[in-house]
Design a protein that fits this description.
The chain is an alpha/beta fold. It is built from 10 helices and 11 strands. It has a 5-stranded parallel β-sheet, sandwiched between helices. Strands 5-4-6-7 form a 4-stranded parallel β-sheet, with helices on both faces. The radius of gyration is 19 Å and the shape is elongated. Its EC number is 4.2.1.75. It catalyses: hydroxymethylbilane = uroporphyrinogen III + H2O.
Length: about 240
């Protein structure tokens, strides 16, 4: 198959559809032809969202685990008093939350995971037995919840969305002939390769994958990917001239 006439290399954005547009603009500015390619969609849990505002106002601090958590839950919360302490897992979640909460948001300067969040000094300044609300999707990782319980905090979880498989248009791979992919969760890696027909799975394994976390890199290796680049953000996705 011949490559498209557009001379810029194509990069797949392997993220939920609602999050692909901002990354697309960033990657296009870096010289890529950005191609959204999501194997998962976010489905709100409406029952959980009905109880969310009560949970929110009972909490002393709220931890947001992802941009998806923010985008799903924040429209259902009354932020008007500005009293809660807000903590996000990374800069992407912080930027998403800032659209709803125009006050100080705590976020690790380095690292994008629960371990980096636990290292923040905020946990040493909260009162003993403080109530912590974790806003996440169904079946999220329990590590931070367990660690905060061990510190004596009262931890409640609001699981506000489901992750649903979404079948990509596999013919996009043939049409665009991507050179790389940008992926931000191990769950996305798993769903991508579980759904891929054999001939497309083999092609996907040949791409250069940009990601920000070692756990995602491990998931890629388990899927048979060998060319992995660690980056902090989408604007660091650069292919060397000899590749």
């Amino acid at each position: 198959m011949n490559r498209p006439s557009e001379h810029r290399p194509a990069i797949l954005i392997v993220r939920p559809p609602s999050q692909a547009s901002a990354d697309a603009a960033t990657l296009e500015a870096q010289g890529w032809r950005a191609v959204p390619f999501s194997p998962m969609r976010i489905e709100p849990d409406h029952e959980a969202l009905r109880h969310l505002n009560r949970q929110f106002h009972n909490a002393d601090a709220v931890f947001w685990v992802s941009p998806s958590a923010v985008e799903t839950a924040a429209p259902h919360i009354d932020f008007s008093d500005g009293l809660s302490i807000h903590i996000t897992v990374g800069q992407g979640s912080r930027q998403a939350l800032a659209k709803f909460y125009p006050y100080h948001i705590i976020c690790p300067q380095e690292g994008n995971d629960s371990e980096a969040v636990l290292a923040l000094p905020i946990w040493n300044t909260l009162k003993p037995g403080a109530k912590i609300l974790i806003v996440r999707g169904r079946g999220g990782r329990e590590w931070l919840r367990n660690a905060l319980n061990q510190k004596g905090f009262q931890v409640e979880v609001a699981e506000v969305y489901f992750r649903r498989p979404l079948t990509p248009d596999w013919q996009i791979l043939a049409a665009e002939q991507p050179q790389a992919a940008y992926v931000t969760s191990a769950e996305m890696v798993r769903l991508l390769f579980e759904q891929a027909p054999d001939r497309f799975a083999q092609f996907l394994r040949t791409l250069i994958y940009f990601t920000h976390h070692p756990r995602i890199a491990d998931a890629l290796r388990e899927a048979g990917v060998r060319r992995i680049r660690m980056v902090r953000r989408a604007d660091e996705c650069v292919v060397r001239s000899d590749e």
